[in-house]
Design goal:
The protein is of the alpha+beta class. The protein has 2 domains: 6-104, Nucleic acid-binding proteins (OB fold (Dihydrolipoamide Acetyltransferase, E2P), Beta Barrel); 123-168 and 203-446, Bira Bifunctional Protein, Domain 2 (BirA Bifunctional Protein, domain 2). It is built from 14 helices and 15 strands. It starts with 5 loop residues before the first helix and ends in a 20-residue tail after the last helix. The chain binds 4-amino-1,4-dioxobutan-2-aminium adenosine-5'-monophosphate and magnesium ion. Magnesium ion binds at residues 374, 382, 385.
């Protein structure tokens, strides 16, 4: 007989009679005549109850089943007299696949997120992390669905790169030379290295995506990204997934319209397709979740300029740890004030001073600011960072020279401005930050399967 997943069983209106379910024992309790066990197979939050009566040949072994053990249960699917469950299985046969010893760390009690991080290989077996990672999977699907519906092409950009997109000096080096050889060299000679040049793990696929937007029109890349930022915050990891749409014939307003549409689409998909898992987050993680998702879905995101934001912050009367000064980057406390306290909804911040932004952003008419945009969200801070790109070859070259970038390494990038350059724009959305937003999970380490952070590379 073929195994049925629990989520499929729960959708049935009528019992098919016999079923076969395989999964892990969550809890078990015994009466004189029966053994009741809750089985979960990871397909959904809900367990199915299996009932073994003492007539079963291996009843003694069933009685000794422990939490975490794996079993195969065949029997009849019957309507459950119990409250809160539609079906249960009257077992005819329970095969014990593996008996978990009592040392199984996930005994039935609530564990702290900190503890569960130390057993990241087992935590997806808990209700909360099972829900988080099912949701992660569903959201990745929704990303592709959204872009397919909008006619965008999916692009996979290289993870190893010879160029620095963001210029923030946060790259991981890629080399095939062993440390001893490098030590003997005295000074690193990149010409002897694998690629014959300095190479790094990518911090963004944007530069590649721009080349393809100028060929295919609308593209998006969605994949891993690496940052060697030494910041141990609840919002940064060294390896994360970034979604990067890039659109030809698009300006900053079009870019913001797109970001708002994307966030709303993905959120709606979560609400409609992942209701059961979301209910866990609402009940056990963040009581304000439903209200927050409602704001995401139904409010028009605010749009203000950096200059206006600085003004708002200065006049706020709020005491910040870091002072607000025009020309400096906003700190997360400032970003959160703007989104949470001032706007009380997501806000696009635009037109930052060019001195604090990368070379590729389009210089505005004022000559002082660039067509940058960040989307700041209550509870999260920066979710999206992007810009309209500098499409004017002379302005771009000038800016790159002033920033001391090696123009010759970017010859191919500059070519795109030489041949058929057009206004274009795009952004990057941190996939984990998005997941934090729609689950209420407060630490980025808990929405990524095996987090990579400074000093930690377990699992
Ligand atoms: O704002 P960022 O640095 O933008 C770029 O890299 C652009 N080149 C993207 C583009 O225009 N195509 O990063 C984009 C987003 C941030 O808003 C944030 O959500 C996320 O990526 N992000 C991180 N997420 C987790 N851990 C980190 N260390 C992150 N750094 C950025
Ligand atoms: Mg940014």
């Amino acid at each position: 007989m073929k195994r049925t997943k629990i989520n499929a069983l729960l959708r049935l209106d009528q019992s098919p009679g016999d079923v076969l379910v395989k999964g892990w024992v969550r809890t078990k309790r015994d009466s004189k005549e029966f053994s009741f066990m809750e089985i979960n197979d990871g397909s959904c939050l809900t367990n199915i109850q299996a009932i073994a009566d003492k007539g079963l040949a291996n009843y003694a072994e069933i009685g000794a089943l422990t939490t975490g053990s794996s079993v195969s249960v065949s029997g009849t699917l019957v309507e459950s007299p119990g409250k809160g469950q539609k079906w249960e299985i009257k077992a005819r046969e329970i095969e014990i696949i593996n008996l978990a010893p009592d040392s199984y760390p996930l005994q039935k009690k609530r564990h702290s997120d900190e503890f569960l991080r130390t057993i990241a290989h087992l935590r997806p077996r808990t209700n909360k992390f099972g829900a988080a990672f099912r949701l992660r999977s569903e959201m990745a699907y929704a990303v592709h669905k959204f872009y397919k519906e909008k006619g965008f092409r999916y692009l996979t950009t290289p993870l190893i790169t010879g160029s620095d997109c963001e210029g923030a000096g946060e790259m991981f080096r890629v080399t095939s030379l062993d440390p001893e050889t490098v030590q003997k060299m005295g000074k690193m000679d990149f010409s002897l290295d694998f690629f014959g040049r300095e190479s790094n793990l990518t911090v963004s696929g944007q530069l590649s995506a721009e080349m393809f937007a100028l060929a295919l029109g609308d593209v998006y890349s969605f994949g891993p990204t690496f940052r060697a930022e030494n910041s141990n915050t609840s919002r940064h990891v060294a390896e994360f997934w970034m979604l990067e749409p890039e659109m030809a014939f698009c300006d900053l307003n079009g870019n913001m319209d797109h970001g708002e549409e994307l966030v709303k689409y993905l959120t709606r998909h979560a609400v409609e397709e992942c209701a059961e898992d979301l209910s866990l987050f609402q009940n056990f993680v963040d009581k304000t979740l439903t209200d927050r998702l409602d704001i995401l879905l139904n409010s028009e995101f605010a749009r203000i300029t950096y200059t206006e934001a600085v003004d708002i912050l200065k006049k706020s009367g709020q005491r910040f740890e870091f002072p607000v000064e025009y020309g400096t980057d906003l700190q997360s406390e400032h970003e959160r004030f703007l989104a949470e306290t001032y706007c009380k909804k997501p806000v696009f911040l635009t037109d930052y001073p060019k001195g604090i932004k990368p070379f590729y952003m389009r210089v505005n008419e004022d000559g002082k600011t660039v067509a940058a945009v960040d989307l700041l969200v209550p509870g999260i801070g920066e979710l999206i960072g992007g810009s309209q790109r500098e499409e004017r070859l002379d302005v771009l070259e000038d800016r790159m020279k002033k920033m001391n970038l090696p123009l010759k390494n970017y010859w191919w990038y500059l070519d795109s401005r030489k041949y058929g350059s057009v206004p274009h724009a795009g952004f990057g959305m941190g996939f984990e930050r998005f997941l934090m937003m729609i689950t209420g999970i407060g630490n980025i380490r808990d929405v990524i399967p095996f987090p990579r952070t400074p000093g930690s590379i377990d699992f």
